[in-house]
Amino acid sequence: MSLFRWLARAAPSHTGGVTTDESRYEAVRSRDARFDGVFFLGVRTTGIYCRPSCPAVTPKRENVRFYPTAAAAQGAGFRACRRCRPDAVPGSAEWNVRADLVGRAMRMISDGVVDREGVAGLAARLGYSPRQVQRQLTAELGAGPVALARAQRAHTARVLLQTTGLPVTEIAFAAGFASVRQFNDTVREVYARTPSALRAASVRGGHGPAGRPEARAGTPREGGPVSGVTLRLAYRGDYAAGQVFDFLERRAVPGVEEVLGRPGGRTYRRTLDLPYGTGVAEVDERPARGGGWLACRLHLGDLRDLTTAVQRIRRLFDLDADPFAVTEHLSRYEALAPLLERTRGLRSPGAADAHELAARAVLGQQVTVGAARTLTGRLVQAYGKPLAAPSGALTHLFPEPGTLAEAPLGELGMPESRRRTLRAVAAALADGTVVLDPGADRDATERALLALPGIGPWTAGYTRMRALGDPDVFLPGDVGVRRGLALAGADPAHADHWRPWRSYALHHLWHATTQAGPQRAPRAA
């Protein structure tokens, strides 16, 4: 057995591998970064909470308390460690795996739903009463939706304080706080510093984890968007950036997306349609010095969209995945183990715009990746909303569902049956028949899609995998998957054994076909 496979088998099984306080303490003793974001530890003698990999001296076991979320640690009276920045860790992959109320709620809170619509809005989207949501989250996570959103607002505020020159008052509201007083109180409680002191410390040499500079400052332009907020988007474990950028580059839609540079040093750019305005995101392929994060720049028309924009880019690049758990499980299968060893850290890219992805899935039916890209580019030019000012080759936002529901679509040069399907999907998205919110019920969404004319298992499954970030989708009818199965010598009947990580197995099979050379390109939008 190779060393890679031995390590994969020996590793604890993601969240399930630290089920007791003793096993959590062992992860802390070994400074195991695999569990950053999975749990947090509060040190009773210092009043500080940290990530498991904090480089500080390991506290004694009797002085440590464990919490499932940063919000729970804050609620217990602990303040964030200035050395390990526990608020900047990747999110727990558990929320993407779980389809229950808690998992769905966590995905929606991350997207900023509580900030925009309050707890009542969150509960309505989930189909529960506010009291039920509060009780369930508090029982399992040690914090309710308001506390979880508050912890996220505090992190957003810190990023803006340390990466922009915006006045403190503007940052308060941009981060989602209802008042400057609430903002000041929260920052002091979470970071044990005033906002001004937090900014001053950054100017003197503010450092993130392991002493590395966390970001460079951007400057607000009068009467226009911020010139750019530079962020580090953290991930855990290996990250196959080259393969992820290849996947996105092959599918980049002209006008909405572009990839600049050459392999190894590319930059992915795309437009964003956000709740308060528009934006442009840029993500670099080249691993940042020290690793563990991707460099990202966000150009936003309204800084209140920062949290939502970050989460959408994280989902697109699958940055909250747990590659240790994926490798441990899938490498047990003889046909898959060589694929995982060959391409470590392969991710399952999601979507920056779920409605866009659903339309692209329809356009990708029964055609190659290149043909789908051409069709989608025509759609954008005909029905997309132009940016106020082009940004390089980025000129448009993707068309809104309401626009496509009424569009003739004659410019696309595809069968009328496909045009009817695209209009039907757009109408269902516009009227809420199909819901693609981050916290949508995935099974219900798939059923709703399959009920529409012209939508089959491939389109519904592909949409579920990418638009809803489901890590457990398999597409047995896909041309590329069938070829990948043949190349790997894998029996499609065994795919059920690959749960709950079938989406990752699927991407390894797709990647195997690109490595084997061209035949017919995999069918995917």
Automatic annotation (TrEMBL):
The keyword Transmembrane does not apply. The keyword Thylakoid does not apply. Keywords: Activator, DNA damage, DNA repair, DNA-binding, Metal-binding, Methyltransferase, Transcription, Transcription regulation, Transferase, Zinc. Its EC number is 3.2.2.21. Its cofactor is Zn(2+). GO terms for biological process: base-excision repair, AP site formation; DNA alkylation repair; methylation. Residues 201-225 are annotated as: Disordered. Coiled coil: none annotated. InterPro entries: Ada-like_dom_sf, Ada_DNA_repair_Zn-bd, AlkA_N, AlkA_N_sf, Alkylbase_DNA_Glycosylase/TA, DNA_glycosylase, HhH-GPD_domain, HhH_base_excis_C. One of its GO terms (cellular component) is protein-DNA complex. Residues 103-201 form the HTH araC/xylS-type domain. GO terms for molecular function: alkylated DNA binding; DNA-3-methyladenine glycosylase activity; DNA-7-methylguanine glycosylase activity; DNA-binding transcription factor activity; methyltransferase activity; sequence-specific DNA binding; zinc ion binding. It holds the Pfam family Ada_Zn_binding. It catalyses: Hydrolysis of alkylated DNA, releasing 3-methyladenine, 3-methylguanine, 7-methylguanine and 7-methyladenine. This is DNA-3-methyladenine glycosylase II. It comes from Streptomyces reniochalinae.
